[in-house]
Design brief:
about 30% strand; alpha/beta; Glucose Oxidase, domain 1; single chain
């Protein structure tokens, strides 16, 4: 599939792999430190229009469970995880995170150090970012 880039407004670039919808996204970075509840994170109105990333290293391990979503639509423009589980294991599982995001037009990015990204945002404050297959897509 090739590399996908997270390009930050300060010029820093993280290289990862795509999952979910194959497209670009631009927005303010926001992180979630939850170890579970990634479905609630995706439906949280506080994340509307943002590029959300999880600090916990493995996301998607119990799949998609529709009844655990908060009310309303999926809020982020894009979703970033260090590693997404391709084969979730839960008796209530209704599908995997990749298909769920793809079906809703939400680009996903995995394979980057989300804890380093968290420190960068924590130390430098909120910043805009872009997810793209083109490393030079955004001139910061």
């Amino acid at each position: 599939m090739g590399a996908v880039y997270l390009i930050l407004e300060n010029g820093k670039v993280f290289t990862g792999r795509a999952f979910g919808y194959d497209g670009e996204a631009m927005g303010e970075l926001a992180y979630s430190t939850k170890m579970t509840g990634y479905m609630a994170t995706l439906s949280d109105p506080a994340h509307h229009g943002k590029i959300v990333f999880q600090t916990f290293p493995l996301i998607g391990n119990y799949g998609i469970i529709t009844e655990e979503f908060g009310s309303g639509p999926i809020q982020p423009k894009a979703y970033i995880v260090r590693e997404w589980c391709q084969e979730p294991s839960n008796f209530r599982n209704e599908g995997n995170l990749d298909f769920f995001l793809r079906e809703r037009g939400i680009p996903g990015l995995c394979g980057i150090d989300t804890r380093a990204l968290t420190r960068l945002v924590r130390d430098n404050g909120p910043m805009k970012a872009m997810i793209s297959r083109n490393r030079k897509a955004w001139s910061y």
